[in-house]
Design a protein that fits this description.
The protein is an alpha+beta fold and about 140 residues long. The protein has 5 helices and 4 strands; from the N terminus they run E-E-E-H-E-H-H-H-H. A hairpin with a 6-residue loop joins strand 1 and strand 2. About 20% of the residues are buried.
């Protein structure tokens, strides 16, 4: 089930919510971090299961597929916003404002950031790091 994780204005203000319902129930979670909101939404499923069990009913298992907004992404992954901005070619100050929710990015800017992060993940997947100390290459 798709769940969206968003950062609100201010520090420690994250929300997760399901896009769809199960048995007429929607799921939400809050936390002081993206990870906390994600854990909290999973807890809401357990609470629905417990309420159903008290009534002698069953509630299905729910697995979430999370989508993060820009602020939640940089909270979830330990990346330096300034360095990522340099890498993807956008103004670091502007990206920091998007991350903190001081500014709302336009669709074009979101696509630029997504493409840049996609390129970063591709580059990381290449395994560019050397696999032994540099001196061992020279004999």
């Amino acid at each position: 089930m798709l769940a969206i994780v968003e950062r609100g204005k201010g520090k420690g203000n994250f929300t997760a919510f399901s896009v769809d319902e199960v048995n007429g129930c929607g799921f939400t979670g809050w936390g002081s971090s993206a990870r906390g909101a994600m854990d909290n939404i999973k807890l809401s499923v357990e609470e629905f299961k417990q309420m159903a069990a008290e009534k002698g009913e069953t509630f299905p298992d729910v697995e979430f597929e999370f989508r993060l907004d820009i602020g939640s992404f940089f909270d979830y992954y330990p990346l330096d916003v300034t360095q990522v901005a340099k890498y993807i070619g956008i103004n670091a100050s502007v990206l920091r404002q998007y991350v903190s929710c001081a500014r709302i990015p336009r669709e074009h800017q979101i696509q630029t950031i997504k493409q840049g992060i996609h390129k970063l993940t591709e580059d990381l997947a290449l395994g560019l790091m050397i696999d032994r100390p540099p001196v061992s290459y020279v004999n």
